[in-house]
Every structure is written in structure tokens, then in C-alpha cells.
Fold each of these.
Amino acid sequence: MKIKGNSIPQKMTALRQHEPGGPLSAEEVDVPRPGPGEVLIKMHAAPVNPSDLALLTGAYLKRSYPLTPGLEGSGTVVAAGKGIMARLRLGSRVACSPPHEGDGTWAAYMRTTAMNVAPLPKKISGEQGAMMLVNPMTAMAFMHLVKEGKHRAMVNNAAASSLGKMLIRLTNSQGIPLINIVRKDQELKALKEMGAAYVLNSTSPGFKEELSEICHRLNATLILDAVGGNQSAILLDAAPRGSTLMAYARLSGDPLIVQPHALIVNEKRIAGFQLGNWLQSRGLLFKLSFINSVKKHMSAELASHISRSYSLEQAEEAIAHYRAHMSEGKILLKIGS
Ligand SMILES: NC(=O)c1ccc[n+]([C@@H]2O[C@H](COP(=O)([O-])OP(=O)(O)OC[C@H]3O[C@@H](n4cnc5c(N)ncnc54)[C@H](OP(=O)(O)O)[C@@H]3O)[C@@H](O)[C@H]2O)c1
């Protein structure tokens, strides 16, 4: 193991969950040591994302317990195991994600594979960098999907999310019509104020008819669905013949509901999107240029608004606030310098 700077401490504070769905506690645990191809990151910050809430239920990803949650973050690589990739990252400020089935970012230090870190240029702050690997990459991937599928326009629901706001800024700057769906009038107003041309409230009377009219007028044949449940049936019903519904989350918690008629008679399709799988299907050169274009847009279109910051010890309070105010902005756990 090669170390940058002073020695690595033996113990650290980490958030631990002892069973699926159980409470979180800040505990003193051993600092892990990186093995071959791995790095040790002194954590700076980590957000709370919907995928973290899903992870905490125990139903989303297979994990062993006790578990340190946290699916993305930022920090500095302070130690590296054997291998050229790991050694190259020593001393770098990075955006990072945990290893497959390993402990996560909600700790003072995280061990991960060198492949799961992306160096941060000076112009990207540690706070924004902590949120670079999930939403900005996904928003950029959606831009590829719309172009590669030659769609003239697209629909996105849960559109007041951080990801939804990134998509509004990207589509505005590239002239691609985006139909946004929210469920509260205050979010409708906020998205219009930030420049969204089409925003509908799914709880308004006449929503289905209005959605169908705009989808047909703009020929919106890519439907991005983060909600699921009955909203999926409404979206598919409103979309023009031949449209694709891309399920990318299940915020309603309900199974996706679809009328077979839409698929059989109107040639509509359903597909799923997960960033990791999408990236895995791409070559190395594409991935390098993709991450560079994400970094380029991080201070503008792909910036996340941070509504509040908390310490690791305040995680339960942070999560409770986040659950109640998701559209307000990102909640960040500030971990270290
Ligand atoms: N598949 C992938 O690879 C991938 C990658 C990145 C993100 N995602 C998903 O993208 C979505 C947005 O992520 P984010 O981090 O940007 O979210 P976020 O900023 O935390 O915001 C979440 C949004 O979801 C809305 N919402 C929550 N429950 C809802 C429901 N039952 N019906 C309608 N809207 C609901 C909230 O609106 P209210 O204020 O009305 O509650 C809020 O605007 C998440 O579902 C996330 O899991 C998926």
C-alpha cells in the first residue's frame, strides 16, 4: 500500500445500518486498507439520493450487514493498493462510488476500486463533485438517448427533481422540446420560472387530455418515467404511436401499470434504464469523452442546488428533511475537509 501524506488512522466514524430498514448510527470502526486495484478515499461530502433511500429499505441492492450506506460522494485518494490505475489516483480529488456490494460513502474513509473514481478538475467544487456520478451522468445519458433514437421531443416526470432540472437546462440549451410533469403547483411555477416551456401538473383536471395533445403536437416519442404505477399507463396512453417508455425509477413504489392495448395495437414499447448498465454497454473511448463532457457542464447545466448540509451524526435528521422536501434541492452530508 502506498500512502499520500501522513499515516492513515486506525479508526474512523462511519454510519452503520445493522439490518435492512433498520436505524442508522454513527459508530467507530476500523479504517479499511486498499487491496490490489483499490484506493482509500478520505471523504469530503456525500448526498442523499432517492437510490440511498431505496438502499436503506434493503429491497433495492443485495448487501451484507452491518452496512455503511451512501452510493456516491467526493474526497481525496490518500492510499492506493498495487496496480497502475490505483497508484495514478494517489493524491487526487475525486468523485467516487462504492465497490459492488461494499461499504459506501457515508463514512470518514471509503475503500473502492480505482475504476470507481473520477478525478475532479479544480473548477468543480468538492460539493458539486460529490453529486457528479449519478444525476449529471444520467441527464447527459438521456440526451444521448433522445438523439440516438431520433426522437423529436421527450417527456419527463418527477420533473422538479435535481435530475429533472438538469434535463430542462440541457434541452433548453440544445433546442430539444421537453414536456415536464410535476405533482404540485408550486413546482410547476418554479420550473416555468427557470425557463421550462411545457410543465403539467399530474393532479390537475384535464391533465391526461393536455398531455396527449402536447405529446402529439410535438411528436414526443421518448417518455422518461421515474414514477411508475398508474402514471405509466397514463403516459403510455398519451404518447404517440411507436413511442418508448423508459422506466428509470419507481418513486411511487407501485408496480408499473400498462394496458396491453398500447403495446399490441399502438406499437408502443417499454424499456428500463440504469446508468451503470447503459455505461457498461459503451466502449472505453465513448466513456472517456462522455465523462469529459459531463465535467464540462458541471458548473452550469449539470449543477445541483444544495438546500442543506448536515454532519454524519445528523444523518437521520437529514434524511427526514429530505423525504419531506425532495424538490427543494440536494441534502449533503459534509464529512471532512
Ligand atoms: N436509473 C438510473 O440510473 C437513475 C440515475 C439517476 C437518478 N435516477 C432516479 O431519478 C429520480 C430523480 O433523482 P434526483 O436525485 O434528481 O431526485 P431528487 O432531486 O431527490 O427529487 C426527487 C423528486 O421526485 C419527486 N417525487 C417523489 N415521489 C414521487 C411520486 N410518488 N410521484 C411523483 N413525484 C415524486 C419529488 O417531488 P415532490 O417534491 O413532489 O415530492 C422530487 O421532485 C429518482 O427517482 C432517482 O432514483 C435514476
Amino acid sequence: MESEKMILINGHEFMFFPGETILQVAQRNEIDIPTLCFMKRATPTGACRMCLVEVEGARGLVASCAMPAAPKMVVRTETPRIGRARRLTLELLFSSGHHNCLVQEPLRDSQTDFQLRPITSKEREDLCPASGTCRLQELALRYRIGIDRFPPSDPGHPIENVNPFIVRDLSKCILCGRCVQACNEIQVNNAISYGYRGSGSKIVAKGDRALKDSDCVFCGECVQVCPVGALVTKQDMESRTQEEAATEMVRTTCSYCGVGCQLYLHVREDKIVKVTGVEEVGPNYGSLCVKGRFGYDFVHDSGRLKKPLIRENGKFREASWDEALNVVAGKLKSLKEAHGADAIGVLSSARITNEENYLAQKFARAAIGTNNIDHCARL
Ligand code: SF4
Ligand code: SF4
Ligand code: SF4
């Protein structure tokens, strides 16, 4: 009975649950099968052909992301035949786009040399902004592909850089479809789809218009899932041309609304340069809205108050926190004594954390004694 639920991968037996694909069983058991188009939260499409595996009895290689596990199935995930197929796919992907991350240079002797070259290159500023984080580049290095088998055919799509959030360079697009699935299946915005046919195929928004003229709401989900440099946030693009510095990832909770989305702040030299959703945990599993993903410039706004101000004779002057708090406490006390607690109202902010808003209402209700507490999204 148990063998009815067992599958053999690379000579080892694994149990599978009804409906699980070969890839899911492999991932659950930490067997690495490379993928480009697969996304946990979307329907598998088998579009990229990177997850091909050998299944005994099958005529050709099969896409493990779309093939359900079956009892007593015998699977191999790394063989010379699979390696050749994956290399062919990668070489074709490279030849059909404009990939300027130096992966095009002959690199078969030393991967370390190759990886150091973009850092020291004079042309660094022209490098693809995804270099170093690109999944296609990573697989090209891993499978040590050659670049001379197929003549390059750059589709020549112009870079779209006409909105404040997202830069689209579709000449680097590998048509994996992740952005389309992220937009349509996960965020259900239905703003982008496949357009045109054959070698002219392209991801389009509203009949091939700029994102800003489409139904796009700039949630940035497509950018987060794009495995290459075809979709990049504008802020990320700009920050990469600056002096290279370590980027620290700080996990936090979005402060815009009560959903509590989990996000990473990418911090370089004390500045937030990018925000991404945390994919492994709820409530958002990587998704964010336009505010959570792009609305962080207020943190570094030059007009932001850093010291308390006290108004005297119609003019503000800087004060210490002790002095300012004493003034506020004294005025609240005298107002309450003269007119009662309900003469006072407390306005909190949507741009502070839920915990801070909780404390503000506690202060209004418990310390002052009024229910006049609200928050204002524009504060
Ligand atoms: S998209 Fe990836 S492979 Fe293409 S140029 Fe950029 S880093 Fe290189
Ligand atoms: S930003 Fe959001 S709405 Fe716009 S195309 Fe990307 S996923 Fe769709
Ligand atoms: S834009 Fe990125 S995510 Fe979308 S199809 Fe192209 S490579 Fe895939």
C-alpha cells in the first residue's frame, strides 16, 4: 500500500501526496531542479523547459513542474542528456535577447574571474541592473554555456522608462510568463498579457501601450517575480549606478494599513533603495501594494521634522524633547482642567506602526480620558 504513494528520484524513494508534481516532491525533499518560469502560487506552465527531467518509460524529457507524481515512477534530475537540453535552452534564451552582463564573454576557464569582471569593469554603469541577482545569469554560470552556437538576435524593444516606478527593458525578457501570472493570477489586476506571435512575441499592456496608460496599478508584483533584468524598479536602477556598497536586508511590517504585510527594506549606506515582499510568510506571501512597495521616499524627505518645534510669537523655534514634552503635557493638563477631556482630540498617522497607533489610542483613552482619537492618512 505504501509503495502506491512512493516515487523514486535519483535512486531514492520519496512519498508524495495526491496531486503533487515531480518538482514539488523534489523541492520538498531539497532536490534542486532548476526553474525559470515556475512560481509556487501560480498554475505551472512548463514554459521555460529548464525543469526537464528523465522519467523512465516516457518518450522524451518531461517538464517536472507540470508532471504529476505517479506510483513507482522512476525519475532522474541530472544526467548528461538533461544537461545538454538545459544548456541548449539557456543558449537559445541568451541569443534571443540583449544580455549585456558580460555573460556573453567566453568564461569557461574561471567563474571567479567572470564574477569579478563586472565589479571592476569600466562599463559598469551600462551593465544590466540585474547582474548579480539574475536567475538566467546564475544558470548560465552553473551550466557554463557557450555563446557562439546561435547568432544573437536582439528583438530591439525600446526601454520604457516613462512612469515613476518601473523600468521595462523587454529586450531582456525571456517570455517566462511569471509577470503575466503574477499580475493576473496572484494580484488579479489583469493589466498585462502575451502579445504578437512567434519571434515577435512580447509582454504587452492594453494592446502594447506604456504601463502608465494601461490598467496597471503599479503594485510591482511583476517586478518582484521577474527572474531577469527585464523589469526593474526605477529606484533600484538609479541606486545601482552609485558607488557599490553593501546592501542590508531589514525585515519589517508595512505601516500603511492594518493588513500587516511583511517586507524587506533593502538598505544601502543608511538609505532605503528598494522594498520587496517576504515570500515565505503571510499575510502577503511576497505581494505588496503600490504604497508598501514604492511609498518609502518620505523616510528620507528633507522636509521631515527631526527635532521638536515650539511656536512662539507666531514663529517656530527648535527645542529639546524634554522641553517640548513639558509644554505639551502642561497645555493638555490645563485644557482638560478648563474644558474637560472631550475638548481634546488626538490625531495619529497611517505612516507609523500599528503598535505606535495602539499607544496613541491608549494615551488618548487612558491618559487623557477621551475617545476622540483618529488617524489621518495624509499626516
Ligand atoms: S537579464 Fe540577466 S542574463 Fe540578461 S543581461 Fe541582465 S543579468 Fe545578464
Ligand atoms: S505593477 Fe502590478 S498591475 Fe502593473 S503590470 Fe505589474 S503586476 Fe500588473
Ligand atoms: S518581463 Fe520578466 S517575468 Fe515577464 S515574461 Fe519577461 S522575463 Fe518573464
Amino acid sequence: MLATLRRFVTAESPSLEKTAADRCCGVIAEEWSKHGARVERIAQKHRGDILRITHAPGKSRSSGQLLVLGHYDTVYSTGTLAKMPFSTKAGKAYGPGTFDMKAGIVQALFALKALQQTETPLGKRLVFLWTSDEEIGSEASRKLLETEARRSDAVFVLEPSFSPRGLLKTARKGVGEAKLIVHGRASHAGLAPQEGINAIHELARQLARIEEWNDFRRGVTINAGVVEGGTRTNVIPERARAVLDLRALRVSDMRNLERRLQALRPFHRGARLEIAGGFNRPPLERKMSAALFVRAQSLAKQMNLSLGECTVGGGSDGNFTAALGIPTLDGLGAVGGGAHSPREHVLIDAMPARAALLAALLSTA
Ligand SMILES: [Zn+2]
């Protein structure tokens, strides 16, 4: 598993560099082809190609499908390996994309190998989909992964687990981004202040109102992460804008937040507000993973593993599949930490057990 992980990690695959990503895609395709699975490479214009791997059960009549979902793109640009090489130390494997989520792809590969070698009968066709733009919002792969999810009875997402305990992610917040732009009127701050409409003052009042919408208990957050506006101190600013991060655990809260944003009205009668954007990933509500989690937990117990769950604030492609009403279990990937940082690593010893758990899930669904 470690040798395979090394091959995947040493092929750098930033979401925004197609040539490099395609090379990594080829390495992953080659590994999967070795095991007799049907590997299709779906060409992409601007992003790395997508891999779709099918493994049909022996039976002639297929009775459904299970989707194993993940991405091979990483947040690290090419050349990162020079500063952050693939290495192992004290039971951990380090390197860009080890945890998020190339080790997950390795675990899935070994799960499939185990199912083949043990000739475990499968009730359903297995489809593994490895996409290339999850880290930048999945614009290019979304349609494909949603189409595949609609054909499936369940979706297993190989995103990293949470904490050294390897918790599954049974709920994820929906995530969005909105821009609030205030249009005022410029004027000389000394000569004609009465003729100006200060866009910064208006924006500040709007932000104070918006801040009150935060409801940590319900999992609703709104964060002004960027503000800008104005030119000089003696000019009443004509324009100011804020970029907001939006998160919600429930679909109803997501809609409510979007409605409230659209309903904002200026405090100053002469100011004009422009609101753009909204949620780009809906929440993965816990009810969409509850039944699968119970099954995963009981399978884990038979393997003498304890399996916990958690709710996280970040989204994944599991948010899309759950929003379609397809049962989705996320965080089945590697155990480790430091995602998107120089400390990114996986716990090597946890990899076989996680692969075994996935194999058990795929053979009992
Ligand atoms: Zn990821």
C-alpha cells in the first residue's frame, strides 16, 4: 500500500495544472488496470482527466450500483515535492495529498483487490470515480458525479477521516460565497460632504446586521472575510464591497440565509446594494448518512475496530450526492492529519483496516 501511495503522491496533481494532473491520472489508471477492473479515462478540457472504474459482480443481471467517490487533485502546485517530499517517519507517511486524498484511492484499490482475491460475492456493480477538481469546487466534474450518483444505491466518499480516531463525516455544512457591493456617491469630504453617500459607512452597518445572523448552535455561520472600498481619506467613497463565507448544516437554513441576503435593503436611502453569489455546495445532512453509518459501525465492530462520527464545517463532493437524496457516507478515507499544510500525513498502520472496512461495506450493501 505504501509503495502505491508513493507512486500516487510523487505524481503531483494540482487542480489547476492539467498537464501534471493528467500524468497523475495515468499513474492511477495504470495501477487500477493491473487488477482486471474496467478503467475508463474521461477526457477533460481544462482539468485533469477523470477516471471511472467499473467492477461488475459475477451475476449476469446487475441489481444496482454502489459508487465510491474521490478526487486525485491536490491544493499543492507542482514543485511542492521538492520542499515537501514523500517520506515516512514514526508510522506516518508525509507528502502533498497523502491524506487529502491519495491514500483514500490506495485504500479503495486494495479493498477491490481483497474482494477479488477472496472471491467475495457482490450484490451490486461497483463504480469508482476519481475526479480532478474537487479542491476548486468540482465545476467540471459535478455533472458526471451526479449522474453516477443517481444510478447508485449508496455513495461512499474516500475523503480523509477526522482526528487520529478516524471519525467518519456523517454531516457536512453547505458552503457558499457571496459578494455584497455597496454603491454610494463620491464627493469632497471637506467641500461638499452633504452631497456624498459613504459606501464604506453603509457597508459597515450592513455587516453589523449580518453578523447577528450567526447561529453557532444551529451550525449557521456567515463570515466577512474580505472588505475593500474607498480611495483617499478626503473622498467620500463611492463603492465598497465585502466577500462573505456562508455555511449551514440544514438545507432550510441555507435557503433562509440566501433569502435574507437577497432581502437586504440599504440604511441610507441613496445607497444601492448589489448581492451576488450564494451556496455552491448544499449541506450533507446527517439523515443522509445515518443508516450507512450504523452499518459501517457494526461491520467495524466485527473487525474489532471502534468507529465514531463527526460533523464538519467543510464541504466535499458528498454534499452533492447527498443533496440528490442518495445515501452518502463520507470520511471513509485515510486516518491522519495536516491536510492542506506542510504537515500533511497519514497513519500507515490504519490503511489496511480502512481498506478492509470499505471492502466489507461494498460486499454487504
Ligand atoms: Zn479532499
Amino acid sequence: MYAVTTRHLIIATAGHVDHGKSALVKALTGTDPDRLPEERKRQITIDLGFAELNLTAPDGDRIHAGVVDVPGHEDFVRNMIAGIGSIDLALFVVAADDGWMPQTEEHLQILSYLGVQRAVIAVTKSDLGQVEFVTNEIRSQLHGTAFANSPIVPTSVRTGTGVERLTAALATELSSAKPHRNISKPRLFIDRVFTLRGVGTIVTGTLTGGVLRRGQQIIIYPVNLKTRIRSIQSHGIELEVAQPGTRTAINLPDLPVDQIKRGDVVTVASLGEPGSTPVVLLEKSSRLDREDRVPGRPLKNRSVVYVHHGTSRVAAKIALREGGPLEAGQKKVAQLKLGSPIFAFIGDRFVIRDSSEQHTLAGGVVLEPDGNGKSLTSGFRMDDVHSLVRLTIKRRGFAHRENLLSKSQFSADEISEALIRLQARGEIIVRQRIVVDHELWRKLNIQAARLIDEAHNQNPQRAGVDLNEMRSALGIKNPQMLEALIVDLCRRDFTRKGSMVARTAHRPTLPTHIQPVEKKIREALGKQPFDPPSRKAIEPDPQARQVVRFLIESGEVIEIASDVVLLRESFEHMKSRVTEFVSKNGPATVSQLRQALGSSRRVMVPLLERLDREGFTRRLGDKRCLR
Ligand SMILES: Nc1nc2c(ncn2[C@@H]2O[C@H](COP(=O)(O)OP(=O)(O)OP(=O)(O)O)[C@@H](O)[C@H]2O)c(=O)[nH]1
Ligand SMILES: [Mg+2]
């Protein structure tokens, strides 16, 4: 086990084929990262290799670095990208006898597209001369990049020169690297899947964003497989909890090895699902406009490319949001139409290569993992949780609290804190589980009040506005949002009555010119009060229909079935007659009660059903008794 003060970070090599990356890893760590028989035979790295390096920072802190050794050959750039997705520092290698070469350049661009900020540069094979010349070349090539001031150390694994200096430089550079954060959003992009006899399926990768525990329930995307972690190791040591920033191997014995592959991601189910149409900000390096090679050509709208995200490589079509192609040195918003979904967070970076996998064309950053709305406008600060929360709510109008920015590099606590601050500043409204833009909320309140007042004016006989009507009139799709709006209205001078909302002072009244119709309807219902005419018969026209609805809403008429209405007093009267009859004669059938009350089956059946529902009577076979 590592001491608590140990910091976990990841280093990856980079540089042209045959420039001595693997030899240097072996000299630094004692581990030969070329593990495949074919790699050893051909003396070339094909796939990722792994080692570990324990360092002491200048301040005495212990640093434990996972080392990923990548291939330099142009045919294996795909594997190289899979190795550097979550690294803290690049060990950037240029051979003294060869200088700056095509994959030196391509790897540099890939590192920069992925936002790698730190590097130590090794001028390898220093025993073969040209150290000064190559050092100058490197300085001039790195001018204007994130690595412009990175240390350059000449090394030779033949003579052992510089290995110690290199180790010290790595420790110094890593000591200023930000530690990996635990935001309780673990992701492990799988880079290896294999099976061990008697142990079962094992997947490995670099863990970021949170811890993973033995016994924890996890999900694998995009295959959507849920399973439990049986055991965890890091660099061969059995762990209870794996920390972010560590190379991690997890044993998933319940999953068949052929159902998982490199590129899949291990995470927890609470963070949302992968998406196929992310909105992104694309960027094309300006380093390319010097030469007229394929990578330098503008990236056109609707190009079909490969997107490299995490350890995955996915076919994609690019839909540029702004006119014209993406030229070298430009940034443009685009939507990616992915052949297979990726589990991306806001702020994740990726690399774009051409469909024949020959060239690196561009890079980018995810603005919206599930891009279906309008994209985030440029100019917001990706690293500022306030600005991100504010913009997201402004753009969408409202959001559910629990999944607001769940796929981002901020913890739930940081997001909650931002909500509190933004609410205090009056920029957003937080109501139970939803968050609404303040301006939108203000407008909705005004519109709702206007809608209710207009309804009272136009239909004074109605109790108010039906909630469903209000919802569609205001264009509110989310039921929780409507609910919150009603609660807000009711805090002012509005009242909710069943499925209606009205001004508290509103008393429904029939317009005078309709009052004769009301009289006629009351008379019709009162003539044979226990067996009145059907609803159809008493409301032959829209005016009469309006009156019946008014009488129902005001409680003067009771609707016991869609076609049967009774005056309230008739209903109460029938109820007491039923009580009387059953108390005297014991349980009675519909037919007995119908005869006793002088009613009909048409009225009696729904009446008794209603009394049953109210808990007044109870059914016993075909008879009714009192509760
Ligand atoms: N003279 C000399 N040869 C070296 C040195 N470092 C590496 N080599 C040789 O260079 C060749 C390539 O070394 P590797 O470490 O496999 O190169 P690599 O960069 O890992 O190659 P890929 O992974 O295939 O891109 C091997 O034959 C090494 O022995 C050095 O410092 N001096
Ligand atoms: Mg190698």
C-alpha cells in the first residue's frame, strides 16, 4: 500500500519510431515495456506498454507515477492516442541522430489537442552525437507551444548519461502537476482486456474522476453491461480502493472477455448515458499551414473521420455549425454524428484523424455531451463552474437539479454551491428539484397571471384555467416546472382548485343573458330528481353545456357518470334514502333500491358505484351494505 501522502500521476512517452522511448522507460524503471513476443522480435513497439516509477519531489513528497509507453510507428498512432488520454506529463523523445521527424510532429500535435500541459524532453541516443544541433531544433519547434519551456535532457541508455538528470527533471515537473481530483465521477477508459485462468476477465486503464472500490457495482458503456468489481489491483498490488490518477486493473469475473474491448469505459450508472451527437469546439493546429500536406488541408463540413476519445476510436461525420471549412489555426463549433456513442463529459478533449487513419487532422473539446439543444456559445469559461452552470441554465431555460451537469468535471457539491450563489445573485430560481433561469421564470409568471385574468374575463362562469390548458398555452413541457409555477402563483393572490387555478378573489358567475338557460336546466333536473333526463338531453347546445359545466364546477350539480348528472340536493337526498332502506331491511340489490327510491338502473348503478368509492357503501356479492 502507498502512504497517504503519495501522489498518483501518469506519464506517457511520445516521439518518432525507433527514437528510444521503450529503451528509456526500461532505463528509468527497470521494466521492459515491450511485452508482446512480436514486439521483442521486431524490436518495435506495437501496443501500449506499462511500467511504474517512484520519485521523490524536491519538497520530499513521494510521487508514484504510472508510466505508459506508446508506439512511435505511424501505423500505430491509434494505439498511441489510446495511451495518452489521461496523462499528466509527456516524456517527449527525440533521437540525437535523427532529429525532428514526422511522428515527432504528429505526437506533439496530438498531445496539444488533448491538452497535455507538461513535458520533459529527452534527446536520446546522445552517444551518437548531434546533441546541440538537435536541442536547438527542438527549442525552435516547441516555440509557442505548451512545452516551450520544458526541460531538455540529453540521455543515452548505452552510456547511462543523463538518466539520473532525467529522473530529477521528471520529479520536478510532476511536483507542480495538479493532483487528480476525486469528484465522485469515476471513469476508467479500458485499454486492455484479457482473461486469467481461474480469475476471469480483467480490464485495465487509467482511473480518473473518482475512486473505484472492491465490490462496487459498475456499468460499462457503450455496451451497457452492469456488474460488480470482484477485486482491484494497481501495478500488481491488491487494493481495497483505487485512487484517481492510477493505473488500475479490475477483475470482472461475471463478464465474458469477448463482450468488452478497448475503448469501452467503466463508470457508475448515476452519471447518465453515452451520447452520439455531442456538440464540440473543433480546433485545427496552425502548425499545419506551412506545408501543403493532407493534414494541412481545411476540414470540410460533412467530412467522415475518426474521433479518438478516451481509449476509443469511433467513426464520425462532422456537421460544422458555422459556414466554411475549418482552416488551420481556426476554432469552430460543430456537431459530431457518431457511429457509436461515447461517454464524454463537458470539457473532455479528443483527436480527429482521417478515415484512412493516415493523418491527424484536428482536435477539439466537448461542449455538450448530449448535444440536442443549441450549443454553448463560445466565450464561456470551461474551468469555471459558475459560468458553466449559468450558461447551461440560460440556454436550456431550466434543468433538473440532480442531473444538471452530471457529465462534467465538477463534483455535485461544486455544482450545488454554484446554484446557491447564482440564486443569491438573483440569476436563477431553484425550486425543489428544478432550476430555472430567472428571466424565463419572471416571464412565465407574468404570462400565467395574464392567462388566468383573460380566462376570468372571457368565461366568468368558469372556476379558472385548467392546468393542462395552462401548460400548453405557456409551452411548458416539464410537469415539475408547471408544479413549481403553480406553487409560486399560489404564494401570491392565486388559488388552486383541483385541476384549476384561479385568482383567489374570483367567484364564478353566469353572465345575465344565460341565466334563463340555467333556470331551465335546474327545472329539468328537479322534475324527477331521482331519475332526471340524461345530460345529453339537458344540454342540447353550447350555451347549455357551458351552464352545466358551471353548475358542476360550482358544486351545485354532481356528475355521477359521463351522461348522468344530479342536483346536489337530489344526490344528498338519495344518499340518505339508501341509508334508511339498508338500515331497515339489511343489504339490498340495485333493483330493490331502484324500486324503493323510484329511480332507474341508469342512475342507480353509477350512484351506488360512487357511494362505494366514497366508502359510504360496500358491495357484498350483488348487494350493498353500509360501511
Ligand atoms: N546508441 C544508442 N541506441 C539506443 C539508445 N536508446 C535506444 N537505442 C536503440 O534504438 C533502437 C530503438 O529503441 P526503442 O527504445 O525500441 O525505440 P522506441 O522509440 O521505443 O521505438 P518504437 O516504440 O517502435 O517507436 C533500439 O535498437 C535501441 O537499442 C541510446 O541511448 N543509444
Ligand atoms: Mg517502443
